[in-house]
């Protein structure tokens, strides 16, 4: 069991309730990363499902959970021959923190009828890491992941944003671990907010995030491609595609978030 597996572990209490403990290693300056929280919820929902893969997850972030004990409460909505639907709520101190729906099924290894091609990226050797955060920043998430960025998309670090909401990077866990559906939940929310490249800064809280697992990823590096379509009235959208080491599109995500404050 890896550290990430331990940090997302869900312990069954009964068929509708799982105990979890939110880990301090996934902080983004105080709040916990949304992808990490979604992975925690998925552990419970998949364990309770008759199917083994989460093919869709949506979450509304009602509050910002804190490190420590919490529960995932499940309501089984429907289970058919090929798909099951579950409502999942992350609760802390009796207060709902994240509310969402999860669809589970069993994915098969098949050749796609049609697929877009992976985005063009420099070699991993020509990509760069973000600087290590200061210890007092509570940006503990960085230590859990290895992200190598396409240099133009982090020009904002030097005050040279491209002016377009975009981010591109290679991704893998810092501790050796092949990507699985729970790692994918983390990966879809692993990039810095794409509005940084448009000149915004500060914490950009996610309000709603939906992602789809399209195929089981091959071992190795993932390629993350994040873009935005509209920044307006203090809101922005972010779309992320994930491609595996075999060049297959394996996940898609879209979130609505507030423009960074500060």
Class from secondary-structure proportions = mainly beta
Shape: globular
- Rg value: 18 Å
Mean pLDDT: 95
**Beta-strand residue fraction:** 35-45%
H-E order: HEEHEEEEEEHEEEEE
Into which percent range does the helicity of residues fall?
10-25%
Count of distinct strands: 13
- Please report the distance between the alpha carbons of the first and last residues: 38 Å
Polypeptide structure, described:
This protein is mainly beta. Helix content is 10%, strand content 38%. Strands 1, 2, 3, 4, 5, 6, 7, 8, 9, 10, 11, 12 and 13 form a 13-stranded antiparallel sheet that branches. Strand 12 and strand 13 (249-258) form a beta hairpin. Helix 2 (34-48) packs antiparallel against helix 3. The protein is globular.
Defining traits:
13 strands; 3 helices; mainly beta; 262 residues; 13-stranded antiparallel sheet
In short:
The protein is mainly β and 262 residues long. It has 3 helices and 13 strands. A hairpin with a 2-residue loop joins strand 11 and strand 12.
Topology:
Elements: H1 3-7, E1 10-14, E2 17-22, H2 34-48, E3 53-61, E4 68-79, E5 84-92, E6 95-105, E7 145-149, E8 166-173, H3 181-187, E9 206-213, E10 222-227, E11 231-232, E12 235-243, E13 249-258
Antiparallel strand pairs: 1-2, 2-4, 3-6, 3-9, 4-5, 5-6, 7-8, 8-10, 9-13, 10-12, 11-12, 12-13
């Amino acid at each position: 069991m890896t550290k990430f597996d331990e940090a997302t572990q869900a312990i069954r209490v009964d068929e509708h309730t799982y105990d979890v403990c939110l880990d301090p290693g996934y902080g983004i300056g105080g709040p916990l990363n949304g992808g990490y929280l979604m992975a925690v919820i998925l552990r419970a929902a998949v364990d309770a499902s008759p199917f083994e893969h989460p093919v869709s997850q949506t979450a509304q972030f009602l509050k910002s959970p804190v490190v420590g004990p919490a529960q995932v409460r499940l309501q089984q909505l429907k289970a058919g021959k090929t798909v099951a639907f579950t409502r999942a709520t992350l609760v802390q101190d009796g207060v709902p923190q994240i509310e969402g729906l999860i669809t589970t099924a069993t994915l098969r290894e098949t050749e796609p009828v049609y697929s877009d091609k992976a985005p063009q990226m420099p070699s991993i050797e020509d990509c760069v890491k973000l600087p290590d955060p200061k210890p007092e920043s509570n940006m503990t998430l960085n230590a859990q992941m290895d992200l190598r960025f396409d240099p133009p998309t982090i020009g904002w670090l030097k005050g040279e944003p491209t002016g377009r909401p975009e981010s591109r990077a290679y991704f893998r866990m810092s501790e050796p671990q092949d990507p699985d559906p729970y790692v994918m939940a983390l990966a879809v929310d692993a990039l810095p907010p794409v509005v940084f490249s448009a000149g915004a800064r500060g914490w950009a809280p996610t309000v709603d995030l939906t992602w789809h697992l399209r195929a089981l990823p091959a071992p190795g590096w993932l390629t993350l491609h994040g873009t935005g379509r509209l920044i307006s009235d203090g809101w922005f959208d972010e779309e992320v595609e994930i491609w595996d080491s075999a060049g297959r599109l394996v996940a898609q995500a879209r979130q609505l978030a507030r423009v960074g404050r500060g």
